[in-house]
Amino acid sequence: MSMSLFVVLALEVEPNTNDLNAAAKELAYVVEYTPNINLKKHSGFLPTKLDSKDAGMETYSFSVSELPAPFKSQLPKQYSQGYVYQFKFGGNPIEAQTAFTTAIIMSTKYKGITIEDQSGAILSPEQLVEALPYFMGM
Asked: How many angstroms separate the CA atoms of 22 and 10, rounded?
């Protein structure tokens, strides 16, 4: 079963993996993204290292207008013209940890809004952090 996290950012924010690597160090997360990738233009598997282990997740991006209606209705007005970064993962715990860690970093650094696709719930960075240990025990 595949799951996704959607991180919605303001339109003018265009994260790249160099920025995420710097933010990961700043926030004390041990994730390392492949350098020099503009996430807005990247689709497909994004290789990473998590705790020095090979990791990754699928990444996609699209306009908020393409987000399912129930998710769009939950967004604060300032995100209505924003951009969505989708982090997709399957049953592999390291992929889930990578997706959640990336959502934490982007939500914190760029003041993003994270939506979990199964429940449609908006998750704060604190809730994402609380969920990380669950994936370590999968």
From this structure: 20
Tell me the β-bridge partners of 116.
5
| Strand partners of residue 62 | 84
How many other CB atoms sit within 10 Å of the CB of residue 121? 12
How does pLDDT run across 23-82, given as a tens digit for each residue? 999 999 999 999 999 999 999 999 999 999 999 999 999 999 999 989 999 899 889 899
CB 134 within 8 A of CB 128: no
Give the position of tokens 């994004």: 46
**5: its two tokens:** 């996290």
Extract the tokens encoding 16.
Answer: 């790249």
Q: Which DSSP category does 79 fall into? A: G
* Of 113, 86, 66, nearest in space to 5 by CA: 86
**pLDDT tens-digit readout, 98-134:** 999 999 999 999 999 999 999 999 999 999 999 988 8
Q: How far is CA 137 from CA 96, 97, 100, 133, in A?
A: 11, 11, 14, 7
Task: Give the number of other CB atoms < 10 A from CB of residue 68.
Answer: 11
pTM, full prediction: 0.94
